[in-house]
Amino acid sequence: MATGWAGDGAVNDQIDATVKDAVERARRQLPTGPGLERCEECDAPIPPARRRAIPGVRLCVACQEAHDQENGFSAYNRRGSKDSQLR
């Protein structure tokens, strides 16, 4: 495939760098430090297993799900891949 002035693998290098930056940004947004024993929104107890699994957890599962829905979080990629758009 012709890539102009870009060297072999330059596109993959750029994709890898973009993914790496996104992962680092997401990790910086994760809570750190000791988690709470009770939810900061509804005061429900946060189970010890959740506190061990997610360091710095501040919300119970129900409040976290509501928070994710409010912020438009979706683990499903609705944009599709570039490859599927070219077909």
UniProtKB/TrEMBL annotation:
<dbReference type="Pfam" id="PF01258">
    <property type="entry name" value="zf-dskA_traR"/>
</dbReference>
<keyword id="KW-0863">Zinc-finger</keyword>
<feature type="domain" description="Zinc finger DksA/TraR C4-type">
    <location>
        <begin position="37"/>
        <end position="69"/>
    </location>
</feature>
<dbReference type="InterPro" id="IPR020458">
    <property type="entry name" value="Znf_DskA_TraR_CS"/>
</dbReference>
<dbReference type="InterPro" id="IPR020460">
    <property type="entry name" value="Znf_C4-type_bac"/>
</dbReference>
<keyword id="KW-0479">Metal-binding</keyword>
<protein>
    <submittedName>
        <fullName>DksA/TraR family C4-type zinc finger protein</fullName>
    </submittedName>
</protein>
<dbReference type="InterPro" id="IPR000962">
    <property type="entry name" value="Znf_DskA_TraR"/>
</dbReference>
<keyword id="KW-0862">Zinc</keyword>
<feature type="zinc finger region" description="dksA C4-type">
    <location>
        <begin position="39"/>
        <end position="63"/>
    </location>
</feature>
